[in-house]
Give the backbone structure.
Amino acid sequence: MENRGPTMTTTRRLIAALLASLLMLTAACGDDGSSDEGADESGEAGEGATLRVPEDHDTIQAAVDAAEPGDLILVAPGTYTEAVNVETDDLTIRGLDRNEVILDGEFELDNGIRVLGANGVAVENMTARNYTNNGFFWTGVEGYRGSYLTAYRTGDYGVYAFDSTKGLLEHSYASGSPDAGFYIGQCYPCDAVIDDVVAEYNGLGYSGTNSGGNLLIVNSTFRNNRAGIVPNSGSYELCYPERDTTIVGNLVHANNVPDTPAIDVALLAMGNGILPAGGVGNTIERNRVFDHDRTGIGLVPFPEEDANDDIPPPEDDDRPCADTVDEAPADPASLPDLLIWNPRDNRVVGNVVEDSRLADIGLGSLDDVSGLGNCFADNTYTTSAPLDLEALAPCDGESSGGDWTAGAIDLVALMTAEQPPSGDYKTTPVPEAQENMPDAESAPAAPATDMPPSVDLDAIEVPDKPS
Amino acid sequence: MIRRRAAAVALAVLLAAGGAAACGGDEDTSAEGGESSDDGGLSGGSDGDEGEGDEGPDDLVVLEGSEVAVESLDNTFRAQNIQVAPGTTVTWTNEGRNEHDVLPVEGDDWGVEVEDFQPGDVFEHTFDEPGVYDYYCSIHGTTTAGMVGSVVVE
């Protein structure tokens, strides 16, 4: 025993030294040396840690880089001149005051918060302004949520989800984007919900190119844009066409503002409330739509010059986006100079539409509109183009067989009409203070791991007209 | 000897565990990237992100001819990963409705900034030297994620 004593002691010392080295190594590499400085970066058992900005980390980006899946990042009031990239799953990034936690791009930075391929990231209760591209941006993710967000004066989109599925955008506000305040694009099925948002002073209140499939736009307000809700198809993004978007219970009005920032599509769409442009199989139901220079609800084609691919056949409507993105496009030489994405198989039902200078409900195409499968029923309206549209294209029963050309939309005239040029997104109105999320300080982390929530569409009624 | 061997095994296990525990999953990627980023001195080449040596990404589209085209859609390069012969001129056209840029992951001796790559704009570059040239759009991606592409020259 005495002879073994010293040997055992040496071995224990060696193992102890190795364990100490291991612990030091773990601490050094685990967080890039930027975390574990704060006093409260330890969550309770089974929960993520809470990282505070600027107490624990000077910048939002530093906190994001130090965070691990499940963590909550709490941002104190202040102005943060940052373009934050998020590449860690399941984070919750929350401002403590929606109106006082401000990411400011100073018209030099591109995106306020950009989530790249990180699933389940929720961003809450803050403002992004003055970005050359987007305020809040998710791309290539499964699971996302934006709640109580304000975005204004952004060069492309305010709140933007691209090539992303299983999402929720709610209780948010976006203004001053030449493209769209809210945008969900290139996904099918998207499995996403836009609920209780407000979009104003944008080129388009909502735009969604080649998106759809369990995509709901509900209980929201789109006002004072060039055009309100504009799902659209085109080969400038993948997963065409736009299809199966459900638009229910929205308040859409006065989308005629001539001095908003506006891209070319917004100029083309100006003066319309809900305008699926080349959309397929959409449901537009129980919305209140009023005060538009052209149509309240119009189903129109989208003309695409120099298209990058041909229009898929209708039998491909149910193909998931993922099955089509790697397919080789058609030979450009085989494509017409102007590709027409027609609206087809859309349902316009039970809306209340008034005060439209061209038509409350309309259907137009450069082709024969009678065979496109669109239908209109039970709407409250005064004018339609063509005349008697609900009789010509009923959702149940046979068409009246009337004259589709009587009172038809003159699409060529509309598409070639001169519109007021784009305003400067950098000078659009500063929004009023917006509602804060409840309990921002104390609410637990809520990563977007179970999106989207279910929505009881049947319970949604036509919204009241604002006083 | 047995005890020394046991200690040696413990040391190896601890070191291995320590490396893994300390650096997590990201470290594996970094290690691969570090090893594979040695592209043999190819000018402008980079293949570290895929960690596949000089072979580049798996989903290569082989394009023939002295001039080939890549579309910059919103927000995807199509074809994303191409293989061309040395001396080929690659032309990128912004076919989207948003602005983009084309920036090399390594170096700055080619590429186009956003100011010069608005919708409808065209950028071209001739790749004379064999190598793997990774690139990305900084607005809609990073060097490793989002709107990224590769030109494999061989």
Q: What stands out?
A: The longest strand of chain B covers residues 131-141. Residues 1-53 of chain B have pLDDT under 50 and may be disordered. Helices of chain B lie at 2-36.
